[in-house]
Amino acid sequence: MRIEELDTPALVINLDALEENLKRYHGYFEKHGIGFRPHIKTHKTLAVAHMQLKYGAIGLTCQKLGEAEVLAAGGIQTDLLVPYNVMGARKLDRLTALAKRLPVTLAPDSEFTVRGLSEATASEGVSIGILIEVEMGFERTGVPTPREATELAKLVHDLPGLELRGFMGFPTPPDSRPIIQETIDLFDRAGLPRDVVSGGGTPHALDAHEIPELTEYRAGEYPVGGAMHLAEGRHTLEQCALRVITTVVSRPTRERMFLDAGSKALSASIYKTERGDSMGHIVEYPDALIGIASEEHGHVDISRCAVKPEIGERVQVLPVHPCPCVNEHDVMVAARNGMVEATWPVHARGRIR
Amino acid sequence: MRIEELDTPALVINLDALEENLKRYHGYFEKHGIGFRPHIKTHKTLAVAHMQLKYGAIGLTCQKLGEAEVLAAGGIQTDLLVPYNVMGARKLDRLTALAKRLPVTLAPDSEFTVRGLSEATASEGVSIGILIEVEMGFERTGVPTPREATELAKLVHDLPGLELRGFMGFPTPPDSRPIIQETIDLFDRAGLPRDVVSGGGTPHALDAHEIPELTEYRAGEYPVGGAMHLAEGRHTLEQCALRVITTVVSRPTRERMFLDAGSKALSASIYKTERGDSMGHIVEYPDALIGIASEEHGHVDISRCAVKPEIGERVQVLPVHPCPCVNEHDVMVAARNGMVEATWPVHARGRIR
Description:
The structure is a homodimer of 353-residue chains.
Chain A: E1 10-14, H1 15-32, E2 35-36, H2 46-54, E3 60-61, H3 65-73, E4 80-82, H4 89-99, E5 104-106, H5 111-124, E6 128-133, H6 146-158, E7 162-168, H7 177-189, E8 196-200, E9 216-218, H8 227-231, E10 242-250, E11 256-259, H9 263-266, E12 271-273, E13 276-278, E14 281-282, E15 289-293, E16 298-301, E17 314-318, H10 322-327, E18 331-336, E19 339-345
Helix pairs in contact in A: 3-4, 4-5, 6-7
């Protein structure tokens, strides 16, 4: 079947672009001797997870236990990093069950989380790895300072059921190196193991060698790119593998048109541009601006387009953030040279717990 | 089971609040003699659709064919309004199949859509109702002027397979009355049927009587409210029936904390407040601001909270827009007085085609 025959809106991944991105990024990490542990949160599909391992990933990262369970049930046999504060009786039960099947490492940032993990794993007779999450100055999760992170690491080192493996941060642009170096120094002075020093984030993935202390790196969006990566020059248009195919269903005036892809197909994520909020980049009409998306319509300003799209015409949209866009879809169509090669279930869609 | 035993994040609907909202809004329309045709796009569940009919709805509205198919397959026997420009061979096939089972009315805004609908329905020997969508001055879909809308209505009136029933607009606040009156006048002069004059939108639902020309009204969010409705005084906190139950999983400093509900549980929708973007209202900590949501974390500024939430604590979040929030969830837990009464599949989730 040709892509043109797919009903719209449809999420399509270009296999040539996907494979080129995998080759490029995995090749970079191999060249620099940094272990690459891709995040599956962007594609959420078993097919791509298996490809990432085939291209040399040392393991995988996922953000919620539910995603890890999908991988384990889908034939993935590797060690998993779940950089989350897993807590509560139900999730701890699921965690210990998972840890009996695959090596699992978590990344807590508080004594509360750590004590819960230790009690659950010790009582079940399993062990999980721990990376302390250290905050890199972006006001995200993570222990706020290297000194406090080291204190939490000491506690982990002393508690049963937990194996301290090192620490991680997110994101880790080159200028986060001093925080990483300070943490290493404090770990070393305290005699704490730190086999793993893990950085993350697609925007600075190809700068990872500028922090030679990193032993591992995590990235999620690199296989597919997206409107922000295009705008910031990290992916060319051809390297942006993920597109929502959509139809112009209304064009009331020469200034505005409506696509049959709204927030339920693109996600409600916004990318701020100099012309205002954008909810995606239209490949065929780069001067058009999807400024608003109601649930079932993309609202597009076409006033700057010299040639105006016609009702019934199909266009391709690069999502702003590929991760939440993929999460809106039950399936992803894999295509090459305009032909459908496979229809992949988005297995980990909606795994919020 | 008590709500406190649900694993988080979880989408919960309070049945007392739901029933009170249904009673209040359906009672209003009954009192004013306006037919009420609720939109199912907010709740997306068969259980609530059946309740809306029980509370006196004259029919239902849904936004995509896929939603209409879910209703038809779920025992709903009423006439459906699908205010969308349905086009393309595959969707037209599905439309004519649906029209053989239930009375269906569409709301096109272009000759392109209308001719496609006529060809498909006439060739299958079925008839569908048509409301012309007229633009109400909000730069949305709809024929831009009453005069052009009347021209399109004449075409519909002449084409086989289509039954012109009137026109609709969205949204229809009281000051849209002149556009509605002008359209009625033009329809009447052209001798066109207009049994249905349909307005829509929860924000002005209880003002519908200020446009006495309206014969029908559509609203989606009224059964559940949400953070915007609370802020704008339409729903009290108690009337906001839909909440995401979530756990504080990280609190690195006294200024910020992180919930286990991010865009995958709340949606990426933003509500602009005087303090900046908000992605939901925390019931227990109204001074907290969920300013950002990554996929699995709500990032919360708690600097203004006199009492600080603790790690492990559970809080309730009112979503900004209930519709995209519900679309992130596979199930909705129905509760009363803190006890779970039912777990409802979100049957129409993800029906983007």
